[in-house]
Amino acid sequence: ENVPLDLSREPSENFREILQNVAKSHGVSNMRKLGHLNNFIKLLCNIGHREENFGFTYEEIIVCLRLALLNEAKEVRAAGLRALRYLIRDTNVLQKVLRLQVDYLISRCIDIQQSNEGERTQALRLVRKIITVNAMLFPTSVANSLIAVGTDGLQERDRMVRAAVAIICELALKNPEVVAKRGGLSTILKSVIDCQLSRINEALITTVLHLLNHPCTRQYVRVDVELEQILAPFTDFHYRHNADTAEGQLKNKRINCVIQSLVTTYNIEAEGIINLCKAGNSGIQSLIGLLCIPNMEVRKGLLEVLYEIFRLPVPIINEDFTEALQSVDPARFQDTWRLSDGFVAAEAKVILPHRARSRADLMDNYLAFVLSAFITSGLLEGLVEVVTSSDDQLATRATILLGELLHMANTILPHSHSHHLHCLPTLINMAASFDIPQEKRLRASAAVNNLKRFHEKKKKGLKPYSLYLDHIIRKSVSSHSRRDSHSRVQRDIYVIKDTEETLLMNLRDSHILNHKQNLEWNWLLIATILKWPNVNLRNNKDEQMHRFVRRLLYFYKPTSKLYAGLALDHVKARQLTVVGCQFVEFLMDSDEDGQGYLEDLVRDMVSWLCSCSGLKPERSLQSNGLLTTLSQHYFLFLGTLSAHPQGVKMLEKCGLFQCLLNLCSVKNQDAVLKLAVTTLDYSRDGLARVILSKVLTASTDTCRLYATKHLRVLLRAGVEFFSSWGMELLVTQLHDHNKVVSMEALDILDEACEDKANIHALIQLKPAVSHLGDKGLLLLLRFLSIPKGFSYLNERGYVSKQLDKWQKEYNLKYVDLIEEQLNEALTTYRKPVDGDNYVRRSNQRLQRPNVYLPVHLYGQLVHDKTGCHLLEAQNVVPDLSYTVRSPMLDTWEGVKQLKAALWALGNIGSSNWGLNLLQEENVIPDILALAQHCEVLSVRGTCIYVLGVISKTKQGCEVLKQYGWDAVRHSRRTLWPVTPDEVDTQLTSELSSVPSTLSLNSESTSSRHNSESESQPNMYILDDDKCDGLDSSDDPSFYPHSKAVKDRSPFTILGSTRFVRPRFLNSLSLPSKKLRSTSDPKSFSGSRTPTDLKMESPRRNRTVTEPSVYTNLPKNCFPQHRNIHCQIIIKTKGQ
């Protein structure tokens, strides 16, 4: 009922009328009471919360409103709850509400009939208001009701269950004591096993881990009982979720929930890892132990958990190892690579490696510690058991996981922690022994062979899927010397004999002269003819050759609709396009004899482009088959022409560039502009760059964003002189009115600044970045890493101002920035570009994301001696060291101050200049002590990351080694990492104790640890001049092997038949510093082969890593996986 409210009256009179009507037990209808309660809220919002305006005390108002909660009508009760929520504004009012025992009436409203959803919703909103005002006053009566709903609500099909559990989680963060004492933590963990949504599981598990983080709240969590109960569906084969649930019922569902929760537990950094990896009977050991129990359902679920924990894609269920391996190949086609979606920009972000070579990737640190914990607990042996005792489908999955983890260990673990892993004595014994059942032996042998195949695939590296990306890479300046990947196979198929008779015979055998069915022509032979040495129309005037060209020309012309009409997924699509590009190059090589044919083809393509891309939507290229037919590959032909000066002249003559410029301002041409931007060659100054600039500024938001992303492709592909023109285009994009575009440009500029030439170019451009917030500031700090940039900013007083700001606030902001990036990488949280708050927008975690260390002011200053002197003058290091030595861990503000100091010291220690400052202050032992003993677990995690940053230099590694901490000792720039001298010496005695049941041939020593990256998996003998920079303490020369370098990786040796010959060496024996004679007592018994003896020489032999052979890629474009820097730190055993 609508009850009028006269706001012109005295507020006290209105309140008196409202409260009288609400408190009357008779004579006032429920609908009128509802109207008065609504008026109460209007009046309260109008006059504010000053008690003197009410004409009544708060107690009197609460007593009257309390009567509404006892009304028989649910609508009136709901309005009463709403009125109370508006009334409670501070702790004083809340205390009065609780003193009058209103909390019992609130509990009654929560526990009342489930059908009263409006009333219960208002009750829950009031409960959240109480938590917001003062959670420490939260009444236990309401907590009991919430926990009861959260625990048993699902059985009653209560729709308020998730809301109740969410409020319990919120309350646990603000007042963990009341939740713990009422059994709320068990409710949270029980809900984990009930919920299959990873986003909700994350919130639940994170709540518990947050309590575990700090010693003040850790007392409320019984780790051995409560946290590990989420493992029960795995570890308890008689598991019952509820007392009335049959044994084993709905177990699959529970296991899926546990998978989500376990992944979250291990992905929330230090808290989860430390608690589930503690010494003794830990949760991780319980999990790995399950792999040895022949329960296929549990094994399958656990393998999925392991894939998710290590951020690896899960293979399809298939008995065929090749198909399963192909399904997880990062270079396989993905839906986001379609022309209508992310296209080549999305593909290149996966295929081409990040430009950062020495910048710490925090995800490597995280994965290294998780991997080390799992391997120490026996994961590899557990996987071997699954491989040899499961059905083929599970065995295939386990084999791929085993290969991935060995590969990962080789890449991100320090040498001392990974050199022995490839031995896999259990698997090799099974494969070679005749004392075990034949079926198991055959499975082990198959696994060894499959691991070899896995290694071979890793060795080949990532290759582009699309012809577009391959075109960009081949045309980039750094790949000009590489052989054409398309034509190499075709040239190898037919032996080329440079005789006219052979050429004519091949023309005849190609069927192109006498066969009208185009697709039945011998296209391999056609490709061979087009690549024939010294054969073109200029040198060969034969009529048959001209007829050959005319037939091909007719096939490829758009007007004939022969090639253009074929579907994109046609079985010969890729081959026909490759031959078409070769045909265009053939015509260009033919000079004036081919110009007529070439001009005919180009004019036809430009005419097709202009006629199809009309202003009307129905005449757009998209509706004319561009998205589905090979017509889109005409842009590859045009791109091939644009890479040659005479080709550019031809395109300009035929009006292509003018046509594309006109399309920039036409709507509905996104696909056409994407294709043009992707295929044109920008290595020379000219119209191609003009078109790119036009698309970057004048087209639709979608096209501008794509063109901006394409600049990252060009950057990573190493296009010539990118610093002189690409950086200017990126700086222009910083001012795009669409924030998504400007932030993308900012991110690309951050990556581009990994190269000094780009930083110099950026300084010349003097970009304005103040409108981009903190991330823009971080880009400007990049200037400080080179003397020119330091002088530029210092002259303007910028450096001193920034030092003050960082000491006051930015050091703390830096902590938020890093933890925000880690949270986004390790969970399903996604932060929108233009917002300030997290939103959960994805049920899927990112596959192997990178979290490169953000730029820090101190980290940039220590690149130069001048910056170090500035830090010394400001007493920065002593002040930070004091914070580390005297941390205030009682409050979260104190914890954050400590983290800020740690990150600042880590960045200072990232250079040799800065490391000297840390050593002078002797603060590194204090950081190590915090890493091992700090009661706040998240601080331990921060210390681990910081130590990784300190180990960025060789000097940093040496300092940490003195305290018993190991680090990966190479940077991403090191193509062939050499095993450090001290590691050779250290491992000599260590390896002599390794069981030698079956051992590796000396040609595949474990010191060949690929600690640089997956891109260098094999043996390589380094040139003398290249070794000088690596070690000047001794003669850097190498004695070359007398035979060709082969693939001598552990996987190859394990799969080799030589492995079962009697010529075995001591397990994992390393090549010594100097080749010793057989009488040398220090040499290993039986560790020499006749070949080795022939190589006897006083000169030093070093084991380094062989470079991968990439077919058509620039020098730094295609490592097999992304390289890492020496930021992985692991505590040495026994220290």
Q: Can you walk me through this structure?
A:
This protein has 1135 residues and is an all-alpha fold. Among the domains are: 153 residues, Leucine-rich Repeat Variant, CATH 1.25.10; 149 residues, Leucine-rich Repeat Variant (Alpha Horseshoe); 201 residues, no CATH class; 98 residues; 114 residues, no CATH class. Helix content is 58%, strand content 1%. It is built from 58 helices and six strands. A two-stranded antiparallel sheet has the order 1-2. Strands 3-6 form a two-stranded antiparallel ribbon. It has a two-stranded antiparallel sheet with strand order 4-5. Helix 46 packs across helix 50 and helix 52 packs antiparallel against helix 53. The protein is globular. The relative contact order is 0.07. It comes from Poecilia latipinna. One of its GO terms (biological process) is TORC2 signaling. This is RPTOR independent companion of MTOR complex 2. InterPro entries: ARM-like, ARM-type_fold, Pianissimo_fam, Pianissimo_N, Rictor_IV, RICTOR_M, RICTOR_phospho, RICTOR_V.
Supply the key terms.
single chain; 6 strands; Leucine-rich Repeat Variant; 58% helix; 1135 residues; two-stranded antiparallel sheet; mainly alpha; 58 helices; two-stranded antiparallel ribbon
